[in-house]
């Protein structure tokens, strides 16, 4: 008998873990997915222009390389089809319970397992909990005064309302991150007028993304080793950029010069160029890739607005300089929640809520296990995001680690593994040491925790350093727990501090 594993979230991470569990001979797992289809962020983010800005030769599983991508950075639909295809090939699709939102997971010390509760009030028992909810699953709209008084349509980019007509209307996009640079070029040609509201300028690199010519496709499909070579090249580029982000910012100079030259070549108007010139260090915020964004900002019906938004009025947006702009539709391309895992309430061995344990910034051992939360693993957890490279490599490594921990370290299904506090503290101390020299310490971004400023999202090193560190779980990092003897009361849940 193998432990029952509940995987929450069926995106790239959850699917990778299911595949690894099958490889380890563990068939007793179910994926729970709140959306009607598997796909995670790739299911939710279906805004116009949604696409991967990392070439798919790298942004794909190492063991499921496809040679027939239509272009280097395919559309969201193509990425979603890929992920759904991989899930089907590995017999995972039928193991996903879609439309099932897990709202609470509570560790039951009496039986050393997890009890999950769904949004519909159903109770599910499992031995192991894998949280595959990711870092970008909860859209956030900033609490700007008057938002509810707006009489037009408004929605977040990750909750695009396709029923709202855009043609011939005045649209305001708030935010200029990785999402906005994909949305804006799509809207510019469709709407009557587009205001793009920028709080801070970003470093942008061009993204050549023409459809592959038939001969290129055929070469990729037929020439042995070509696909692997492209993957290695992309990985090497990721390593070169990571050196500048994590070792010494001076290594960023070539990319910074490239980005500046690209901006100069695209934007002739000095006033607009000044607005688009970043003030923070290269790579401190997410580097953006687009060959269409800068051009679209110069369309006659598009304005880049750099005043701070102070309020939303019934008919538009008001700014700090007292000006106001009318809008029929507001698109909030304002990113995702600061806190990981929440609002899913995870309650650990001593009745403590993960949200409380992480109140001053998320910490986990290798980004995956948290002391006090036995038999629980986090995918794409604290300090496992990358400033450059493909997150899929990180997810593959985590999935393999988790499958090994469950398959090799758990002595029997009724037992639980808990990471030792010392192991977690040691890996975090090493991480903090390195974080000091990263570029991410020099500006505000979603990589940092809201009120403590700790960089809680990013891995402060190279991908291969992480994958080597988690190649196999160290048994010394864990202790084994067994069910409480009959009559010994389990700790009651503590009161959860309001967010
Ligand atoms: P984001 O990077 O967090 O960007 C949010 C934007 O909203 C920023 O420009 C931010 O300004 C702005 N903003 C937030 N609050 C604001 C306010 N009160 N007033 C004005 N502007 C405000 O979110 P995102 O663009 O959705 O991207 C999130 C992450 O998803 C990315 O970093 C990336 O990792 C991932 N992503 C990946 C792809 C891909 O192709 N692989 C595509 C899209 C997204 P500041 O810059 O000043 O903070």
TrEMBL record:
This is NAD(P)/FAD-dependent oxidoreductase. SUPFAM superfamilies: FAD/NAD(P)-binding domain. Gene3D superfamilies: FAD/NAD(P)-binding domain. Signal peptide: none annotated. Pfam families: Pyr_redox_3.
């Amino acid at each position: 008998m193998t432990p029952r594993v509940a995987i929450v979230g069926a995106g790239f991470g959850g699917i990778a873990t299911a595949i690894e569990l099958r490889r380890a001979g563990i068939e007793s797992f179910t994926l729970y997915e709140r959306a009607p289809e598997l796909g995670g962020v790739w299911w939710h983010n279906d805004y116009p222009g949604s696409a991967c800005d990392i070439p798919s030769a790298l942004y794909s599983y190492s063991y499921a390389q496809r040679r027939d991508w239509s272009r280097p950075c395919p559309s969201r639909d193509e990425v979603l089809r890929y992920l759904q295809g991989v899930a089907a090939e590995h017999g995972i699709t039928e193991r996903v319970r879609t439309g099932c939102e897990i709202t609470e997971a509570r560790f039951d010390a009496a039986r050393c397992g997890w009890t999950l509760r769904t949004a519909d009030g159903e109770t599910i028992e499992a031995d192991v909990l894998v949280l595959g909810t990711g870092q970008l699953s909860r859209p956030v709209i900033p609490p700007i005064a008057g938002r509810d008084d707006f009489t037009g349509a408004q929605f977040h980019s990750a909750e695009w309302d396709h029923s709202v007509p855009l043609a011939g209307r005045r649209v305001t996009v708030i935010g200029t991150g990785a999402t906005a640079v994909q949305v804006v070029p799509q809207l510019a040609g469709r709407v009557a007028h587009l205001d793009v509201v920028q709080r801070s300028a970003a470093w942008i690199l061009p993204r050549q993304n023409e459809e592959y010519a038939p001969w290129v496709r055929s070469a990729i499909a037929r020439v042995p080793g070509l696909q692997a070579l492209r993957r290695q090249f992309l990985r090497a580029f990721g390593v070169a950029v990571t050196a500048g982000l994590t070792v010494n910012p001076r290594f960023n100079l070539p990319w910074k010069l490239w980005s500046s030259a690209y901006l100069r070549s695209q934007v002739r108007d000095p006033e607009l160029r000044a607005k688009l010139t970043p003030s923070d260090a290269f790579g401190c915020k997410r580097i953006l890739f687009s060959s269409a964004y800068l051009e679209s900002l110069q369309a006659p019906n598009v304005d880049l607005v750099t005043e701070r938004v102070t309020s939303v009025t019934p008919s538009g947006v008001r700014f700090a300089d007292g000006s106001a702009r009318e809008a029929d539709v507001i698109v909030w391309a304002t990113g995702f929640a600061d806190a990981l895992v929440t609002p899913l309430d995870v309650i650990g061995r001593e009745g403590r809520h993960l949200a409380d344990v992480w109140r001053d910034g998320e910490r986990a051992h290798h980004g995956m296990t948290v002391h006090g939360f036995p038999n629980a693993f986090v995918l794409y957890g604290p300090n496992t995001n990358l400033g450059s490279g493909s997150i899929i490599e990180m997810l593959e490594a985590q999935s393999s680690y988790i499958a090994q921990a469950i398959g090799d370290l758990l002595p029997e299904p009724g037992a639980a593994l808990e990471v030792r506090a010392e192991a977690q503290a040691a890996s975090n101390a090493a991480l903090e040491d390195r974080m000091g020299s990263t570029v991410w310490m020099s500006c505000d971004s979603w990589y940092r925790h809201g009120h403590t400023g700790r960089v809680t999202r990013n891995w402060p090193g190279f991908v291969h350093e992480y994958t080597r560190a988690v190649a196999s779980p160290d048994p010394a990092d864990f202790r084994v727990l067994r069910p409480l003897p009959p009559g010994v009361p389990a700790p009651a849940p503590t009161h959860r501090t309001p967010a």
